[in-house]
Amino acid sequence: MRVVYSEAVNARESRGLSPLEGEPDPEGADCVSCGRCCHHGPETVSLLESDEARLGESRLHALTVLLDRPPYFRFMRNDGDRCGGLDTSVEGRYPCAIYEVRPQGCREVEPGSPCCMEARALGHLGSSVLFRRADRR
Ligand code: SF4
Ligand code: SF4
Q1: According to the 3-state scheme, what is the secondary structure of 4-57?
Q2: Which of 6, 15, 51, 97 has its CA 20 to 30 A from that of 71?
Q3: Candidate of 31, 38, 122 to mutate for ligand 1, largest count of ligand atoms within 8 Å of Cβ
């Protein structure tokens, strides 16, 4: 486990995302300047059928990927080490470009929640699978 953590630290430092200390504003005022929970590996944010309906065909095509193996889960597509739904047009700002129609799993990562605090401490989502658990508990 120590080796895995060291690799995570190295990867984090190489992309300049550092851990954040302290608890965020519970109302989400810190989220756009944080964005840590939207940085993660592929196949992290899964979609429910209701998420697919809310996103609509064009966004499904552009921003998601459907696995070609059973049970054919659909996930948000990654853009490097972050979710493809992030708007990265302004350096250091991480707004969700699809905030109003974001998947249910994202809605359950509240500022200050265990998943949030893990992401802030690591600089990315790390080993948490709460995104995936959110709709399949
Ligand atoms: S890690 Fe927490 S504070 Fe940062 S964007 Fe996610 S919910 Fe907001
Ligand atoms: S859909 Fe939006 S809130 Fe969810 S991980 Fe992607 S950028 Fe973040």
Answers
A1: HHHHHHHHHHHCCCCCCCCCCCCCCCCHHHHCHHHECCCCCCECCHHHHHHHCH
A2: 97
A3: 31
The ligand whose atoms approach the alpha carbon of 97 most closely is: 2
pLDDT tens for 21-55 read 999 999 999 999 999 999 998 899 999 999 999 99
Ligand 2 within 6 A of 98 CB? yes
SS3 assignment, position 66: strand
Domain ranges of the chain: 2-133
Judge whether residue 84 has pLDDT over 70.
Answer: yes
The closest of 120, 101, 13, 24 to 59, measured between CA atoms, is 101
| Mean pLDDT, rounded, for 95-104 | 97
For the entire predicted model, the pTM comes to: 0.84
